[in-house]
Structure formats: C-alpha cells, structure tokens
Amino acid sequence: MTLRGFLAFVAAALWVFFLAGEAVRAEERQAPSSWQQIQLSFAPVVDRAAPAVVNIYSRRKVQTRGMSPLFDDPFFRRFFGDQFSFGVPRERIQNALGSGVIVDADGVIVTNHHVVGGADEIRVVLADRREFDAKLLGSDEKSDLAVLRIDTEGDKLPTIGFRDSDDVHVGDLVLAIGNPFGVGQTVTSGIVSALARTQAGISDFNLFIQTDAAINPGNSGGALVDINGRLIGINTAIFSKSGGSLGIGFAVPSNMVRSVLAGIVNTGHLVRPWFGAWGRQVTADIANSLGLDRPVGVLIEDVYRDGPAAAAGIRIGDVILKVDGQTVDHPEALDYRLATLPVGDRTSIEVWRKGRLRTLTLSLVTAPEDPPRQTTELAGRHPLDGAVVANLSPALAEELRIKRFQPGVIVLAMKRGSTAGRVGFSRGDRILKVNGRAVASVGELKAELGSRAGRWRITLDRDGRVINWDFR
Asked: Is 144 a catalytic residue?
C-alpha cells in the first residue's frame, strides 16, 4: 500500500469512528419515549422529607434608648458606639422568622442559632399546621446551630434521617425545604455547587456545603436533602447584594449538625475537643520549600506546651495533612474536622515532617479551666477602673474565640461610662505590665493597681500588637 493509500485508509477509519460516536451521543439525547418518563418527579422525595420541616417564629424584647430605631441598629452602633444612646429606655418586640428540621420523633428540632438566639418566645408550626411552644435545649453560636424540643403529648412526629456529609459530591441533586419570606413551606431544587466552602464568613466553623438551590430569608434552619430525602445540611445563609437568592447558598454539613445535636441532647451542653496548636494554610512557596508536591495542609506555627497536640508529638513546622482520614487544606477545615469528633476518643493525625509522612494519635479532650478565671470588676483611682477582667485559660480562650492562647489577664468588658472605657481599653486586651511590673493573674494585677501611683504605665497586647500607655 502506498503512503497516500495508507493515509486515505486512516482518514476513512477516523471518520467512521466519529460518525459512530455522534450516533451514540444522539442516542443518549433521546426524547422521552413514554408517558412514565415524562412524569418523572421529585414529588416522592418531597412527600418523605417535607413533613419533617417546620416553620419557626421567635420573639424577643429589646431595650431602645435612641430617638430613632436607627440608633439601635448594629451597623450604626459599630461606628458610633453608645454616644447617641440617650432618652428613656423603651421596650419593643423583635420578631424573627425561620425554619427547622425534626430529627427525633419525640419532638427534637434543629435550626439555626441566629433564628432563635436570645428569644423570649419560640413558636413552632408543623407542616400539618399544628402549633407548639418550643423550649430551647441548647444553642451553639460557633456553628450557628440550635436545638429545640416541643411537647407533643406522646404523638410521634415525622423525621428526616441523616446522610454522611463527607459522602456528598459536587453535582449531586439536592432539594432545599423551608419557609422563605414567610410565604409558607417551599421546595426548590438544584445541585451541590461546591464543598468545604470557607470564605462565607458566617460562623467560626467555616466549612459549608454550597448549593444553587434557591435559598432566601426564612429558609434559615431548613433542610437541604438529597434525592433520597436524607439530610445533608441545614440551610444557613446566602450570598446576596439584594437580600434575594443569587444562586449561592450555604448549608452547615450534616456531620456537624449530628455532633452538635448529640452533645446538647445527651449531656445538656456542648463540649468540643481542644487541639492546642495553631497554624496557617500552606501556600505554593511553602509547599515547595517543604518538599510537598502541592499546596495542601496546615503548617503548625505554635504549639501550647501542655496541650493535646504537644502530647501527641506535633511540633512547630509540621504540616497537618489529614484528621481521622479526612484531608485538611486550611485551618478552617482542621477546626471543623476536630469539632465533629467526640470528646473522650482518640483520632489519627497524618503529618508531613522533614520529607516524611508520619501518623500520630491525638487524644480528644476539652480545654482546661486552668487557671480558674476569677472574673473581677476593678475599681479604684486608676485607668482600669470599671474594667471586668479574668485569668485567661484555654477554656476561656475557646469561649472568646482566641486562636493563639497565651496565659495572662484579659479584659472582658467595661462598665458604661467607666474610666477604662473612656481612656480606650477594649474587650480582648491582655494586660501584660503595670508600671513595668509583669502581671500574670488577676490577683497580681489588683496588687499593682492598689499601689496608688500618681502616674500609670500600662502595657497591653491588642491583637498581637504590644502597646504602652502612659496615664497621669
């Protein structure tokens, strides 16, 4: 066969394969061939899941002092503080609307913390229109989740089963069920558009399931379910510039929901494992310098000497790659993975150290209240008059969401109109020295402030910056 003949043969063969491929693709794109195919619907999924989704109405009393409600708006007060808070206090009712999910037939309901937080009254309306007063069993601001209970006098309620949120994939079909804008129970459909989304800035544990199923105000606390009607997340927030859905909604993964639910229902309060180490996301440059083939994991920059991370053998410079077999790509993922694990157990930590993979065992324990906080309101002729201070312990640092724990004395609050507030002290300031003398406890601080000096020099740590203030 000549070269020209061979090339002609190859071209003909490729054309045949192309036509065959087109025929297969055309066959895949067939129109519905039966009435049954046209009738395919999500209705059976909705029939299973929707009865377990409830409407929640909450009310709370708030005090107002301004001449206009504008003065009590959090955005306004962020910039102007309390300088416009004058006049006779007036009481008004603040209403909130949201959704919830029945997770136990005896009346246990999961919703968002921001739906019921601080509420004086909580009313739950079932899908069959029955109404109940609800009791708040517990609320967790860090995950933006809350657990309620209603008394059905023995009646069993429909529930939604949980699905492992680590088994969810981008592209999975999902339904969002809730009460948007108070119009009544509504179902929207979409897909999982992203996983482990961390830039939402909604809660401490920023690791959300993202969906394009329409979520609007009032959907908060509602269910995100798969095509089998199983719960994969609690709808929590949307990305929007107008208040309406733009196709970017966020849900708290079901594994976090299950962890919070178990803690609150079983023990009456929520406790989480404490890691005792802090780090940052690995960049491409860091990965290259450490011999990693790609930027992944959390580079440990600080380890508390008496914490569980130190006991497990974790060192500064280690890169945490996996927790309990799950990959962690950034500090938020590390926090999330640890928060979903039960206190009292152990888990495996995979680290990269000096070019080698190592597997360590971490004990899951709570942050200790050591030293005792000894909360104290300071009074006297000194710059910290009216400040409320406490000994900073790992447990208190966790409560205050302080990432890098260092012992010392921390400012918790200032009385309205106090000297401490007027001269510029802020919540979160850590007092280091008074007149050049280090203070490591509330007792030492009180002793130094009791010296009645005519001139004061206070050294404090504010967000990692050391500040020296002189007062006369």
From this structure: yes
